[in-house]
Amino acid sequence: MALKFIALLLSCQLIGEVIVAFSGLPVPGPVLGMVLLFVGMVLRGGVPDGLGRVSDGLLAHLSLLFVPAGVGVMLHLATLRDEWLAVSVALVLSTVLTIAVTGLVMTLLIRWTERPGRQD
Amino acid sequence: MPLDLALGDIWVYLSSGPLLHLTMTLLAYLLADWVFRRSGQRALFNPVLLSILLLVAVLSVTGTDYQTYFEGAQFVHFLLGPATVALAVPLYRNLPLIRRLWLPILIAIATGALVSSTSAVLIADWLGASRQTLISLAPKSVTAPVAMGITEKVGGLPSLTAALVVLTGVLGAVVGVAVLALVRVRDDRARGLALGVSSHGIGTARAFQVSDQAGAFAALAMGLMALASALVLPFVLRWLFSG
Question: What is the mean pLDDT of residues B193-219?
């Protein structure tokens, strides 16, 4: 019964949107929906089969879902043209820095966590 | 010429409904995905990037504006909401992985999130980018639906953010593994986490090519990054850019 789980995903999103609308939280409604679903699975202690299938199906084509919004870049070609240097230098340097720092921090912390003689 | 007139009429008729641009979006993606597979999944032939380039080219040639296109494409765009909710499932499945290394994971992701947004905003600001561009740039490492939600709430341009997120993803997928080799990070858990933190879904896809373990840690990083950024970044940006 895929329909039931599609309704579940949409209900989580809807509740998330309603909470955001009334609380003024600066968090996207679907993210709150994700938290609700996560908490639900923790309380239930597992992923229902149907939900796993619906989610996997939806996430298998996650890339496609970025396309319509990405095409909107055509509206901002002028902005990007005016600021291409700032944007491209910021993107390249920041991406390289983020990958290097995150990788190094994680490596050091794993080494520290798994150091010999540490009781787990 | 009557034939031209007839074709023109058909075009006008089709352009007025959602069918044409919805179909166009799916076909462009299928073609881009085919090219990506045929290229041996080279990061440079990222299907999202190729689809966007293809669609922008077609829309420019046919003189179609984005609003008209989006009336059809919105049905695909709408699915980003439930897809974001669905991210809870891989997050939950990876729960046993988090338990053992929860502190290193949280510290590394927090550090990565801080470095990503701060370095991008500082560098772009130094090079004279506008306030709106800086806000749109800040969540560049966060998965698109969440990044766009953050930008929208703080007064950036969601569509510009989407483009910057895709560019960041492709960049990370192309240079990530080389950068990690350069700084001698060899643990797959650390490599996956770094790719997921910096380059969300596109980085996660790259991490799965390294190993299953790297992929799992990237997916985890992407999910936690989305959650943490959605909770923290809007407040930081409002504070930074207020007034």
Answer: 85
Q: Which of residues 97 through 156 in chain B touch A, CB cutoff 8 A? A: 100-101, 103-105, 107-109, 111-112, 115-116, 119-121, 123-124, 127-130, 132-133, 137, 140-141, 144-146, 148-150, 152-154
Pair A6, A53 in one domain: yes
Quote the Cα angle for B148-B227-A50, to 5°: 95
Q: Which two tokens stand for residue B49?
A: 């990037």
The torsion angle over the Cα atoms of residues B153, B120, B79 and B218, rounded to 10 degrees, is -130
d(CA B10, CA B22): 17
**Contact by Cβ (8 Å): B154, B176:** no
Same domain, A24 and A43: yes
Task: Give the alpha-carbon dihedral of A20, A23, A26, A30, to 10 degrees.
Answer: -20
Q: Is the CB of A64 less than 8 angstroms away from the CB of B76? A: yes
Q: What is the pLDDT of residues B9-62, one digit of tens each?
A: 777 777 777 899 999 999 999 999 999 889 987 767 878 888 989 999 999 999
> By three-state DSSP, how is residue A120 classified?
coil
End of a domain among A27, A43, A65? A65
In angstroms, the CA B43 to CA B172 distance is 9
Return the residue in B89, B151, B161, B213 with the most chain A beta carbons within 10 A, the one to mutate for interface testing.
Answer: B89
* Whether A110 and B189 lie within 8 Å, measured CB to CB: yes
pTM: 0.78
Helix (H, G, I), strand (E, B) or coil at A94: helix
| CA distances to A77, B152, B182 from A90, in Å | 17, 21, 20
Provide the residue range defining the domain that includes A21.
1-65
